[in-house]
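Design request, tokens follow.
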């Protein structure tokens, strides 16, 4: 027992002894699966996953979810496509289905299997229940912009998303899509600025939109590759703060905006 405490489990009997006392510990079960995989025992690792799901208490949903994700990971790495689908469908029956779909997409992205991740995202936005969530559209667009470098396809998701998500989510989702244009290598910051201009033109008092835009412009300074590009980014940020401060504002809001502008100038500006 002292050796186990110091060195951790080293063989099958060690794991079995520990699991007798900690049957709900998903981390230990996953460690056991990894141990079997190190020995080249893929089927035994699957058997451990099956045992884990039977042994972990029915109320421990998060612990069970961890095992399902580990098992899907295993099948993506070592199994056939049919096995991945089989385990995934079983997981969706007992876990939150949208969460499982998102995890499967993440596993495929981490494995470099972008076409398969793309197919999972299409399944998500094709599902009537899932596509009402703004996050599923933003996640898909982020994947297309960053992993697949397919900006046109990402942009085409915005009008599709606005047909599915609740109307009160449209403004924020549109702003987040604009943010992708700033943050993604395949994005176009000018396109993002145009979207923000339209948003603040329609909702000039929407302070969250102004603040999001200011944060994105400030981030452009840090990523500027030349002195000229940095100077241009500083000017754009300064001009935006100037526009924000010329609006009618309540005292508390004004204090917040001027404080942020001062912090910006102390870092990026000259004495003037």
């Amino acid at each position: 027992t002292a050796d186990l405490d110091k060195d951790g489990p080293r063989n099958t009997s060690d794991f079995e002894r520990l699991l007798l006392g900690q049957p709900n510990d998903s981390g230990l079960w996953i460690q056991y699966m990894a141990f079997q995989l190190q020995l080249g025992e893929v089927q035994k690792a699957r058997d451990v996953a099956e045992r884990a799901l039977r042994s972990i208490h029915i109320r421990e949903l998060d612990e069970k979810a961890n095992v399902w994700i580990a098992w899907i990971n295993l099948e993506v790495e070592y199994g056939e496509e049919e096995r991945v689908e089989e385990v995934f469908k079983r997981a969706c029956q007992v876990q939150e289905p949208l969460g499982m779909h998102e995890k499967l997409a993440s596993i495929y992205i981490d494995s470099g299997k972008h076409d398969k991740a793309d197919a999972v995202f299409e399944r998500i936005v094709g599902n009537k229940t899932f596509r009402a969530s703004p996050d599923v559209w933003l996640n898909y667009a982020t994947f297309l912009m960053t992993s697949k470098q397919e900006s046109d396809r990402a942009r085409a998701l915005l009008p599709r998303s606005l047909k599915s998500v609740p109307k009160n989510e449209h403004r924020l989702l549109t702003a987040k899509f604009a943010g992708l244009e700033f943050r993604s290598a395949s994005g176009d910051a000018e396109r993002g600025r145009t979207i923000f201009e339209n948003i603040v033109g329609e909702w000039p008092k929407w302070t969250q939109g102004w603040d999001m835009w200011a944060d994105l412009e400030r981030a452009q300074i840090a990523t500027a590759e030349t002195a000229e590009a940095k100077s241009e980014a500083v000017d754009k940020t300064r001009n935006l703060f100037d526009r924000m401060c010329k609006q009618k504002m309540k005292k508390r809001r004004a204090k917040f905006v001027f404080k942020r502008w001062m912090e910006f100038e102390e870092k990026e500006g000259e004495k003037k």
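Comment from the thread starter after seeing the answer: thanks! The radius of gyration is 25 Å.
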